């Protein structure tokens, strides 16, 4: 392991959240220009901004910006400041002496190209930033951060087999090798064939220190009778951590827990200017007496950036482009109380959906698609007899990072084939419906 001096932080443009609905758009656009950008709450101090190696600051405001006071010393750092959407009253024009620059309109007022050009001018002409941020540079910086933080100690990775946790495992393994141990919890809420796939990939192909825990009964017992989606998420999140705590006690010298938290998880779980949309198991529900320090190297990345990092790390395509899957698994795709019967139904329906989408050659065109089991039954006909069975919902969306989404226009003949197979092959299902709601107003998952 290298002992050379580490450049842990890289230059960045810091976006301070003053209530704008377009914080993510601004942050993403700057990154697309090749300049690293981070979104931070308005409460950060000038000293903290300076320590971030910021070369530029953007105040991203909205109709409520008067409620959010920032540290006035931000304007005395000698770092250029651009204020967007704050009515123009605080900074109405360029102020070279104070390095302040005003933009009175919100990004949505102009055309996307105009917004990008304005940010390009600020980044390169005003801030003199370098377009040096790539996935390779991100990996290099994060590897050094991990080595610096961990030293010769050991890390436990919460490996679910999804894209996020898989990329985290690969990134940390590159940084510290066998100091990493991955624990995979089979909580009984995974998709058909997923347990076998995870074990084969990380244990047999990547040869990581890998432990599989069969906790199916434990999770289902905890979830018995629970119908509220937020409560289900909290229970699953807490139980995950308790399982890792117990398993780590069987190991020697585990000090860190690695999680696949990404930016969307944090935003949707609520920030200073964003209400909770839904809690994520790796953001909410952590017990106060948790015995680990957290390592979350992807928490500043959007979903498409996580996939790009995975490809750069050499992960196989089927992992990098694996369907997004919520941390609570099928626990939030079975609405209402979770039972073995309901899990079996949604697994089989989901398998048929994925199989037919792949046969149609749409598996790389549609960003995410899955089956849901609403907590409703309806009258139907099955085997020429009246039935009163479950309805299955199908969801398929196009998205880039999961922050917004549009429903996928799957051809009718393919939907017909999927519906016919599900009602014929899956017990206790007599109806299939297709969700045509965008995000917003709906979320991608139903719970």
TrEMBL record:
PROSITE patterns documented for this protein: GMPS_ATP_PPASE
Keyword ATP-binding: yes
Cellular component terms per the entry's GO annotation: cytosol
UniProt superkingdom: Bacteria
A molecular-function term among this protein's GO annotations: ATP binding
EC number(s) per entry: 6.3.5.2
Keywords carried by this UniProt record: ATP-binding, Glutamine amidotransferase, GMP biosynthesis, Ligase, Nucleotide-binding, Purine biosynthesis
Function statement: Catalyzes the synthesis of GMP from XMP.
Protein name in UniProt: GMP synthase (glutamine-hydrolyzing)
